[in-house]
Amino acid sequence: xxxxxxxxxxxxxxxAEMQEILGGCVHPDGRPMTFSELEDECxxxxxxxxxxxxxxxxxxxxxxxxxxxxxxxxxPGARLPxxxxxxxxxxxxxxxxxxxxxxxxxxxxxxxxxxx
Length: 116
What we know:
alpha+beta; 37% helix; elongated; 6 strands; two-stranded antiparallel ribbon; 2 helices
């Protein structure tokens, strides 16, 4: 997937805002930070930002309406009344969102709908 020029420009603006949040390039005692320290701080900030954006985007996905089939037997499952928190550990950090859960009585199992 390729980002549009306008999205790239906005992300560069956000990078400048992140620089303001992270602050200068010196330790509290006045010593300059090494390149490795700067990189580690930027990677940590980028990972937090990426996980946060991913979590919000996943939560916006359209959930299937009506029936969802069991991944084992392919029979329709019954939607359970309460959504469950689904948590995944990604390359950029933990991401959590609410997702409907379905029950397959013949298989005696619960499952999440497959969204691809």
